[in-house]
Amino acid sequence: MEQGISNLILIDRDMRRRATISHALSSANIHVEPFENLSELTSSWPRSGIILIHDDAGAIDELIENMSQHGEWFPIIAFSENPAAQRIVGAILDGAIDYIAWPITAPELNETLDRAMRRAESVGNAKLREIMARARVDRLTRREREVLGGVASGLSNRLIGEKLSISPRTVEIHRANMLNKLGANHTSDAIRIAIEAAMVH
User: Fold this and answer.
1) In what order do the strands lie in the sheet with 98-102?
2) How far apart are CA 98 and CA 135, in angstroms?
3) 117: domain CATH number?
4) Is the CB of residue 56 less than 8 Å from the CB of residue 140?
5) Which terminus of the chain is more solvent-facing, meaning fewer CB atoms within 10 Å of its CB: N or C?
6) In terms of residue numbers, what domain contains 177?
């Protein structure tokens, strides 16, 4: 892979900030592809790059969902103005590999992007998927994780209930919560996430 960033995918609803960031980066010789939102990005899915996304509520989650549908995995760097520590932790737990407080100077941004690129290269595609899947599984309670384990092993609600000494109805509730927290529409999505998180061998 070439040194430095070949392609930066910028997702930010704020037109003025998008222009400012694009300008700052192009002056640092970084190619920027700006997008207003995710649906604009998904209509012309890039081949490679790092995603710099403004940390709006649910944005990282939605981005990871899109990446899993496309089977393409890009390192994500989140950014926002004066982010609170809790917000940064939340974004990292959601699967971002770095966080930037905006505004930032071009050299600082360059350094962060380089670091993210190196980290992404060292973890590789499969590892990146695993990190993101683990970030999602980590949100589950212990019980929801046990139910996910049962589901991934192909057990019915009744059998999971017997194994965990809870009623099938309780399994059903945990299962619904678990799907919701994983952002999974179907059991098959949850199983894929469990496999990617290396819960299932």
Assistant:
1) 32-35, 8-11, 50-54, 76-81, 98-102
2) 14
3) 3.40.50.2300
4) no
5) C
6) 142-196
